[in-house]
Amino acid sequence: MSDLSIRALSKAFGGVHAVREVSFVIERGEFLAMIGPNGAGKSTCFNMINGQLAPDSGEILFENRNIAGLRPREIWRLGIGRTFQVAATFHSMTVVENVQMALISHAGETYHLWRPAAELHRAHALDLLQQVGMRDAADKPSRVLAYGDVKRVELAIALANEPRLLLMDEPTAGMAPRERNELIALVKRLVVERGISVLFTEHSMDVVFAFADRIIVLARGRLIADGTAAAIRDNPKVQEVYFGTGKTFAAKASP
Ligand code: ADP
Ligand code: MG
């Protein structure tokens, strides 16, 4: 069963056709990479799926329901989560409080319960932090965390919402190559355990080829290829797009 089925999705900004008639599916439990040069339309696709942008036309079927044009909060409630977005309050709370807040929100509990109940969901939150390797930092103020550690806490927060599909637009932006590999390896392990489907973008081709179950390629708003790593690597249209920007996969793969 496919989790998400995108059909002829289009979005223009003035005269710029950011996404043109894009169609693809994400199968249940799949780890799907979307790649393409800057400006290809990747973020626009993500933002239509998560509800930040309404498509001009096309369908986004999530578990057979068309979610195109729904609000972000409705889409999130249906089970589509996303990383990595730090809430405005993130830096004012401890690490574990941030995860507790996500659990409280997911449970639909109201905010006023929070204040007298510092223990609310604490054990569950600590367990999630353990899973992302951040248990020891639980009671630290979030603002003191290193960049890569913030990403791990954000992952725990995303998992607190128990998504069935997780959207990650450039989750490793700003990270060193080794950290990128570690974060994506961690994400993959945790989502496979839970049967969560993932759509992600990533600039490092090393990471994409190492972890993606399948790869789709956008160029100038159009989907130009959809296949396994080996098929994508050998696809002449894909090579043209990357040679056209002066970069081969080998060149892109190095930091
Ligand atoms: P990618 O994420 O693949 O780099 P984007 O989806 O961000 O690409 O952008 C696709 C195209 O749409 C680009 O030409 C970009 O300049 C344009 N674009 C994206 N968002 C907006 C916007 N809010 N207003 C105008 N143009 C936009
Ligand atoms: Mg982008």
Question: What can you see in these coordinates?
Answer:
- With 255 residues, this protein is α/β, with parallel strands linked by helices.
- It has one domain (2-89, 145-253): Rossmann fold (3-Layer(aba) Sandwich), CATH 3.40.50.
- The protein is 37% helix and 24% strand.
- The chain is built from 10 helices and 10 strands.
- It has helices at 42-49, 72-77, 95-106, 122-131, 147-160, 177-194, 205-211, 229-233, 236-244, 249-253, and strands at residues 2-13, 16-27, 31-35, 57-62, 65-66, 80-83, 165-168, 197-201, 214-219, 222-227.
- The protein has a 6-stranded mixed β-sheet with strand order 6-7-8-3-9-10.
- Strand 1 and strand 2 (16-27) form a beta hairpin.
- The radius of gyration is 19 Å and the shape is globular.
- The two termini are 37 Å apart.
- Residues 42-43, 169 line the site of magnesium ion.
